[in-house]
From TrEMBL:
Pfam families, sorted: 2-Hacid_dh (PF00389), 2-Hacid_dh_C (PF02826)
GO cellular component: cytosol
Protein name according to UniProt: Glyoxylate reductase/hydroxypyruvate reductase
The organism of origin for this protein: Plakobranchus ocellatus
UniProt similarity note: Belongs to the D-isomer specific 2-hydroxyacid dehydrogenase family.
Annotated ranges, domain D-isomer specific 2-hydroxyacid dehydrogenase NAD-binding: 115-295
InterPro entries xrefs: D-isomer_2-hydroxyacid_DH, D-isomer_2_OHA_DH_cat_dom, D-isomer_DH_CS, D-isomer_DH_NAD-bd, NAD(P)-bd_dom_sf
Amino acid sequence: MASSRLPKVFAVKAIPPAGLARLRQHCQVTVNEKKGWPTREDLLQGVRGMDALFVFPFVKIDREVLDVAGPQLKIVATHSVGLEHIDLELCKERGIKVSYTPDVLTTATAELAVSLVLATARRLDECFCAVKEGVWGTCWENSLWLLGKQISGSVVGIVGLGRIGLAIAKRLAAFEVSKIVYTGRTPRPESAAAVGAEFVSFDELCKQSDFVVASCSVNESNKNLFNREAFKKMKPTSIFVNVARGVIVDQEALYEALASGEIGAAGLDVTNPEPLPPSDPLLTLPNCLIVPHIGSLTDTTRKIMCDLVVDNILAGVEGRPIISPAF
Ligand code: NDP
Ligand code: DGY
């Protein structure tokens, strides 16, 4: 096929070379190679006249973007399971397909959530700093120095027992926890039965849990769900882990809860905004461990995710059914 007739794809930021090479066998691909997130201007310029968009979370695909892209746009393919950055209703209305990457990143994200539970429970960040800073010898005589929390025997609360929440619950169950509770908009009896989890209200989950793990999708029901009242309900020893999205947390309230000892510690893979500015007060707290949104960032998972996005785009532009439709 002559190159002028190849479907046009715009990638809003750099994509792995293998995925790009596969796409280029069938499509004319433009990549926004600029470092960091694309500016709105670059995004609007890039999408014009495209048949497919290869997108990532935090890059808003809204009415203006779809209007500028034009009526030939066939598919918006996101390299994520989160869909909150895309106007799904409008895409549906206009017959634009939307694909995402469910399931393939569940294991990697669950493993990261468990890592955050373990790292915060045993204060690994503080431990590593103590060794590096040479205070090990001077504090070791105190037998309670860097005292951690045990996972066995604890109550684990999962906020959002979906694919990732269930995978986290299964892994934490292996640590011989005493109980798993979960919450959501609706009970999920089948998933709950797989891990013996009990459905409770959000308030009850906050009260009962030693570890509160957020793994929900984002929607209007849970923006700032973790606010002052929520942290007040938790135990002073509770550990809060978030692998969902930063917008479900009132970060000022989290800072106050951690600084005042209202809760014990936090482990965050996601923040608001991302990246979190180095001047953010949360970064001054020894009991707050923050990693840069690495949930799905393993070699195997990222390869599969990219392959899936490419397969969806190729199906979308060729008029075949897409593999993982968002609706
Ligand atoms: P699922 O759709 O399988 O699960 C989402 C869960 O969230 C459902 O159980 C849903 O239950 C629940 N939920 C929605 N609203 C609420 C609420 N208000 N309170 C409690 N639970 C709620 O999605 P996945 O498990 O595959 O992914 C979940 C999210 O994890 C993604 O949307 C994404 O934001 C995030 N994620 C983060 C990653 C990272 O790198 N840190 C990697 C991958 C995903 P119900 O509908 O019954 O309320
Ligand atoms: C997702 O898939 O939603 C993650 O946040 C990015 O991997």
